[in-house]
Amino acid sequence: MPNAPVAYPRMVRPASGRVVAGVAQGAAAQLRLDPVVLRLAFVLLTVVDGLGVVAYAALWMFTPKEEAEGRRPAREWGQLAAYGVLWLALAGFAWMTGASSGGFGTWPIAVGGIGALILWQQADPGRRQRWMSGAVKQVSTTWVRTGIGALLVVVGAIGFLAASGELAKAGTGLVFTAVVVGGMLMIAAPWLASLVKELQRERTERIRQEERAEVAAHVHDSVLHTLTLIQRNAHDAREVARLARSQERELRNWLYQPKQDADASLAAAVRRVAAEEEDAHGVQIEVVCVGDCELNEGLVALLQAARQAMVNACKYSGAPVVSVYAEVEADEVTVFVRDRGKGFVLDDVASDRMGIRQSIIGRMERNGGSARVRTEPGDGTEVMLTMKREQQ
Amino acid sequence: MKTVRVLIVDDHRLFRSGVRAELGPSIQVIGEAEDVESAVTAIGELQPDVVLLDVHMPGGGGQEVLRRVLGSGSQVRFLALSVSDAAEDVIGVIRGGARGYVTKTISGAELTDAINRVSEGDAVFSPRLAGFVLDAFASTEAPPIDPELDSLTQREREVLRLIARGYAYKEIAKELFISVKTVETHVSSVLRKLQLSNRHELSRWATARRLV
């Protein structure tokens, strides 16, 4: 009945009605036989050199338990006792007649049979049907298993022929070893594969959860906090804009900027300085950085000069946006601070005003750099700061 | 100046109406779309001069729209408009075929100007995009595979640097003693290199930047 409408999945061991572990019952359901037939088969095989026990144990290991809710029902002890008695009687009979030693001939048959059975129960019904119709399309994961299974069956057959043809006992032993090793490999392969897959799945799941927790924490700590502050300060447009802007900047940094140490990297330090001045003066500062390098004494001075230039632009230019551009080249570092504001006449700045002369130009020159200020009334201001990099 | 017919593609309704209200009289908004499917359909039906394209949208985002529309041989021009500053978004959408990239903080007048520029076939670079390009082209030590496409000329570098410093095209022209048209030519040529250079570093740089 290959076209049964009810798709039944891989063989499982049912929890209810089991005698030992539900293997026979599961196999019977899979093969659509009465469980009693299979149980009798296992008992009979056990009499022959204990093969039934081996087959049963193998199927027990590789057949998943049926998922069931609640308490597991107890075993059917009465049936177990019945089969036990049956086995004892058969074993006793066999011992008396001396028929129990099946010889080498039975082992290869049994191993081949077990291999085939395991192959069979690993496969899902769809694949089984494809096998039945003979159209085995090579799906990368299935053909390895199919190949190993086929090999096992062939080796089993050869073993049988060798044993019945009474070849040298050593040769038979070798074949037997090969069969056992092959069987072990085939048995272990799908199990290991599923184990690895399961581990990977768990790992990605854990990483995903950690990520989610981090996002939640960030949103809670900063975004929600700022939104609350904004509602509280709703009457103060300037403060609302400042809060929104600083939150936007923080979120952007968190989302798009590589994590950098603002005490060690120039680009991160420039961004931090700009952020601080933006917060202090409520004027937007757009920062673009190209390249990066480690901070040193000269660059710290450059940063301080740049900060002063930003402060000036925010306080006096009247421009809504200040542009900061920092570029690290092989031999020097340049920072531009530009606004499109009022501008001024450089020579008119009183010599006692510290801002430009001392904090910017003077500081740069003391540290071996240079500063240039370009400005004209009505044409905005641009401060260009250059510092040579120390050659290593 | 003839009016430019624009289609706005963005999944935020508030943002679409905001943009509509801010654009100058030389721009005529002929339609809106809110996801990849409706954008592709609307572009096919309305044939706008310029599409204002959001980068992050349901159904694959701006890059998917670019792929499907430009892949079918359409000559429609795209200007990407996004809140994202991520290098991979910026570089990705330009490599996908957009003629420019501006962030949503841009003022109405600047956006109008950018749309006009794109409609005339020019490229529009924001300071940040200029910074990314300089960074990307400078960051590799590997010798270029195709020197014509894989490196910037001295002049292009100067123009990009000025854009990054916050200069408008007109100011750049004045600074370098060249015409605005020449500035536009340089920027278009950088755009072409950005789109056609098969240096893997460009995309890899953009992705790796976040993972430092």
Structural account:
Chain A has 392 residues and is α+β, with helices and mostly antiparallel strands. Chain A is 61% helix and 10% strand. Chain A folds into two domains: 23-205, no CATH class; 261-388, 2-Layer Sandwich (Heat Shock Protein 90). Chain A has helices at residues 23-31, 35-47, 51-62, 77-97, 106-122, 125-133, 140-164, 169-232, 237-256, 266-281, 297-317, 354-366; strands at residues 284-290, 321-328, 332-339, 369-375, 381-388. In chain A, strand 1 (284-290), helix 11 and strand 2 form a beta-alpha-beta unit. In chain A, helix 1 (23-31) packs across helix 2, helix 2 (35-47) runs parallel beside helix 4 (77-97) and helix 8 (169-232) runs antiparallel to helix 9. Chain B has 212 residues and is an alpha/beta fold. Chain B has two domains: 1-121, 3-Layer(aba) Sandwich (Rossmann fold); 125-212, Winged helix-like DNA-binding domain superfamily/Winged helix DNA-binding domain (Arc Repressor Mutant, subunit A), CATH 1.10.10. Chain B has eleven helices and six strands. Chain B has a six-stranded parallel sheet with strand order 2-1-3-4-5-6, sandwiched between helices. The longest helix of chain B is centred in the C-terminal third of the chain and has 17 residues, at 180-196. The termini of chain B are far apart. The mean pLDDT of chain B is 83. Classes of the chains: A alpha+beta (392), B alpha/beta (212). Chains A and B meet through helix 9, strand 1 and strand 2 of A and helix 6 of B. Chain A: Keywords: Kinase, Membrane, Transferase, Transmembrane, Transmembrane helix, Two-component regulatory system. Chain A: This is Histidine kinase.
